[in-house]
Design a protein that fits this description.
single chain, 126 residues, 96% helix, rod-shaped, MbeD_MobD, coiled coil
Length: 126
């Protein structure tokens, strides 16, 4: 009977050890699952922030394109006016005045382009 008691005790101890290690393994898995869930949550928030930024940048880019288009059409209109005036100019003073108009139209074009870029950068950095 000694052997039978020894086998029973050994089986009991083995069963307790197996249960302990199984519980320990499940505890580790549970902790890893909690950590993974928190990381997924953080990554989801980060993705949402970047999507929001991307939408803002897209809106700013669309505004920039729109203002650039308007600036180009204004510049083209002024250029056509200057060309028309040049054709009608007869004196050197008139030609000088027309050159001033041309410089004005070019400076407006550059100013509008610069403003558009500055606005885009301002919106992108917010």
């Amino acid at each position: 009977m000694n052997i039978l008691s020894l086998v029973k005790a050994s089986a009991g101890i083995l069963l307790v050890l197996c249960a302990y290690f199984l519980g320990l393994n499940q505890g580790k898995n549970s902790e890893e699952l909690k950590n993974a869930r928190s990381q997924v949550s953080q990554l989801t928030q980060t993705i949402q922030e970047y999507e929001t930024r991307q939408k803002d940048w897209n809106i700013a880019m669309a505004d920039l394109r729109k203002s650039e288009s308007i600036a180009r059409s204004d510049s083209e209109r002024l250029r056509q006016r200057v060309n028309s005036l040049e054709k009608r100019a007869k004196t050197s003073e008139s030609r000088i005045a027309i050159q001033c108009f041309r410089l004005e139209s070019e400076s407006r074009k550059l100013l509008l382009e610069a403003r558009g870029i500055i606005e885009y950068c301002r919106k992108a950095l917010q």
